[in-house]
Amino acid sequence: MTNTSEIIAEKLLSLSRKFGSEHADVLITKGRNKSVEVREGELEQIEGSDSLSISLRVMNNQKSAIVSCSDSSIESLEQMTKRATEIANESIPNPFIGLAKNSDLAQQSTKASIDLSEPEELILNDPLKLKDMAIRAEKAALNSEGISKTDGSSASSSQHELLLATSNGFLDSYNKSSYAIVASAISTCGSKMERDYAFEQRVYFEDLPQPETIGLLAAKRAKMMQGAKKPVTGNYPVIFHERISGSIVSHILAAINGEAIARGSSWLLDSINNKILPENVSLIEDPHLPRMSGSRPFDAEGLLTSKRFFVRNGILKSWILDLKTSRQLGLKSTGNASRSAASPPSPGTGNMELKGGDQSLNDLLKEAGEGLMVCSLIGSSINPNNGDYSRGATGFWFKNGEITHPVNECTIAGNLKKMIRNLTLANDSKPYLSRRVPSILVENMTIAGN
Predict the structure, then answer these.
(1) Tell me: the pLDDT tens digits for 246-280?
(2) What CA–CA distance (Å, rounded) separates 121 from 159?
(3) Are residue 332 and residue 265 in the same domain, yes or no?
(4) Residues 378 and 285 in one domain
(5) SS3 1
(6) How many structural domains does the chain have?
(7) How far, in Å, CA of 256 to CA of 261, rounded?
(8) What is the distance between the alpha carbons of residues 66 and 87, in angstroms, rounded to a whole number?
(9) pLDDT band at residue 120, thresholds of 50, 70 and 90?
(10) CA distance 221 to 336
(11) Which helix (H) or strand (E) holds 80?
């Protein structure tokens, strides 16, 4: 992080004291982004931006306010601090807000050193490189037999810096880089067209697959959906393919988020220290993995991050907490505060792994016998209070453990609490993803088709 950001943060903290605030923190993010979209081999869109976001949160007499801007001039910083102080003074008191104790703040001596960024000059200064990557991905898809056209392809790169400073002495920063390629493909069977895509993202450019590999994968997926039809309505096993199985973990994380628990609106509300998953399954966060987009050395409140089992051997061990929700619940923060420039801290997670599977995807298909393997989900109807679940789905029908034909235009429904209690995991999660979730077999769900 540049010295300029540190100077801005220190100036804002000084101004907050001058205007009468008891406590304050500053979040500064700086970023550079480039993205290129191509269609039919021609450049369709190129975008680039250099961004600066300065966010000040002031706290006084249990009242708080957040104001953000992108102008670092002294006049702007003064106006920003005055405005934040005025808003805070008119706000409703909240006894649970406040900075971390000094003793709980992350220290340089204990903070993990994580490899999260590479030099920005690799791609950001060469948009022609991004164009070449997007064109190569689209060309590979178009040259595949059975592909009539595409919805285009894109490539992007970014570098971001984040600095957090608090009025009780915390000041630290870290950088992140990201590179991504998206390819799409459209196949034709008679009068019907099927579309699918492939997406890959990495922290380091050298870890990104070749564009041709991504284009070919999009084409393969589109061709596999040719001749898709609605399934027969009934109750069957459902396999959530590794492509979309992370959505199940997202629902679990939402249900154990401290804000949902504090509100009393969670289908896992009374489940702490109870079995919610099979006894061999654990849900783990590890924020210190190198070259992973979900890693970070400290959270948005300056607390040290650490590896944590939210579910260990099927037993729910912890909620996801920031300082506010931990105080509401009479617990200790899990170091999971996340924050944007325009919002206060709230609980959130990064790298997650659902662990415990020892079977291949083929093993799951054989175990299930007949049912639906879901590869894409559409829409969402989730009741946060009781876990009732309903989503549109496409994928493949299987029988006797073998895939028979593609399926679309159907709905799958069940109850999340029942779905996750007896799930079976495969061992096919991708180690390079920040959310490593294998294919998941749910024993019984309602499938609505014909």
Answers:
(1) 999 999 999 999 999 999 999 999 999 999 999 99
(2) 10
(3) yes
(4) yes
(5) coil
(6) 2
(7) 7
(8) 8
(9) low
(10) 36
(11) helix 74-89
Q: Find the helix or strand (DSSP H, E) in which 169 lies.
A: none
Among residues 342, 346, 335, 336, the alpha carbon closest in space to that of 262 is found at 346
**Token match 């946060």: residue?**
384
What pLDDT, in 10s, does the model give residues 124-157?
Answer: 677 789 999 999 999 999 999 989 899 999 999 9
Q: What is the pLDDT of residue 119?
A: 76
Q: Note the pLDDT of residue 449.
A: 87
Can you read off the two tokens belonging to residue 213?
Answer: 């590999």
Find where tokens 């249900």 sit.
255
Q: Which domain holds residue 152?
A: 3-224
Cα–Cα distance, 136 to 149 (Å, whole number): 14
Would you state the pLDDT for residue 148?
84
pLDDT grade for 1, boundaries at 50, 70 and 90: very low
Residue 365, CA distances (Å) to 63, 368, 373, 415 in order: 56, 5, 8, 22
- Nearest Cα to 166, choosing from 108, 111, 101, 113? 101
- The token pair that represents 313 in the structure block: 């051997």
Tens of pLDDT, residue by residue over 45-102, are: 999 899 999 999 999 999 999 999 999 999 999 999 999 999 999 999 999 999 999 9
Do 277 and 326 have their domain in common?
A: yes
Q: Residue 195 corresponds to which tokens in the numbers above?
A: 């579309």
